[in-house]
Amino acid sequence: MEELKGAIALIGYGLAAIGPGIGIGLIAGSAVEAMARQPEAAGMVRTTMFLGIAFTEALALIAFVLFFLA
Amino acid sequence: MDELILALEECDLNENAVCAPSNVTDLFEFRTPIVEILGFPITRTVFLIFLAGLIAVLLLWFGLRKGATQPGKFQLSIESLMTYIRDEVAVGIIGPLGIKYYPYLMALFIFILIGNAFEVTPFINFPITSRMAIPLFLSLLTWVIFVFAGFKRNGISYLTGIIWPPGVPVALKPLVGLIEFVSVFLVRPFSLAVRLFANLVAGHVMLSLLLVTALVSVVGLFTGEIPVIKGVFGFAWWALALAIFCFEMIVIILQAYIFTLLSAVYIDTSINVEH
Predict the structure, then answer these.
(1) In this complex, which of A51, A57, A68 lies closest to B261 when CB atoms are compared?
(2) Within-domain flag for B34
(3) Count of structural domains within chain B
(4) Which of B6, B38, B113, B140 has its CA 20 to 30 A from that of B270?
(5) Could you tell me the pTM of the whole model?
(6) Could you tell me the residue range of the domain that residue B94 belongs to?
């Protein structure tokens, strides 16, 4: 049962990494499109992109930490 | 050198694919202190924390000492870093009131950057921000600053302004209030700390295990203890560790910048609450 606990934790982390993966892809894609449409706003778009990536990546990282706790 | 590399001690490549100690969290603990000063044990981690602070102070001291109007290269780089944090992060995000918080944000950025950079420096391959105490304390500092700044500027209407944003229907007020309260006052410091902590832990664990596996595989290939296929595969582990090393250099700067940026954003939502 101990080996199963580690394996289930790993599967759980894999499932939890799907959402932030898609989310960060969407954010970065929208940021690239916005920078292509209006290059003057590139600085503000870049800052907001980092902010959005940080928020969504936090969910994947919480899953990573919980994997080690189990 | 072996006693400093924990993953090297309990390494049996005939059993496991990768060299790993039985409990991975042991990679982060240093049980024996280097020296004991007045009964306070100085372990490797404590020594590295003081070293990071000292390097931060020395960088800024020697960078800004001369104050020449035609700066040399080092002064130019330190000044451009300070100008960037001031214009983009402190004043750019918070507005004209942000200059009061600029020293805190600058110190935060430099300390976290140097603490993270210890992961890739040659003889100190251990990031101090991978011990939860450092990110937790720094995020608690940010939390105290943004809560107190909000209450000092807006009084009790800070609390009602955060919990019930304008335009919430009366029937939903309890639910929205609870969600916003938990989100702003409880989740924010926690996620700020965990983001920095987990990024650095992941990098350190991957680099340690992969590099030690590569070392043991390639050395075992030449001494003949390891089957040839596993020995040659050591080069693949080494290449992967090299790629992760390059990626970690980006993560180091990015995570320090994001911590500082989010601290500035939280202070901004406290001070400039739109009524």
Answers:
(1) A51
(2) no
(3) 1
(4) B113
(5) 0.87
(6) 44-271
**Average pLDDT of every residue of chain B:** 84
B73: three-class secondary structure by DSSP: helix
Decide if the complex's ipTM is over 0.90. Answer: no
How many interface pairs between A and B have CB atoms less than 8 angstroms apart?
41
Cα(A33)–Cα(B72) distance, integer angstroms: 39
Structural domain includes residue B13: no
Domains (ranges, CATH) in chain A? 2-69 (1.20.20.10)
The set of residues, in sequence order, having a beta carbon less than 8 Å from that of B261 and lying 6+ positions away, is A47, A50, A51, A54, B89, B93
Retrieve residue B5's tokens: 């590399």
- pLDDT tens per residue, range B215-259: 888 877 777 666 777 777 888 888 999 999 999 999 999 999 999
CB < 8 Å & 24+ apart, contacts of B28-31: B28/B126, B28/B130, B28/B131, B28/B201, B28/B204
Average pLDDT over residues A20-45: 93
What's the token pair of residue B266?
């939280």
> Could you tell me which residues come within 8 angstroms of residue B211 by beta carbon, excluding any fewer than 6 positions away?
B237, B238, B241
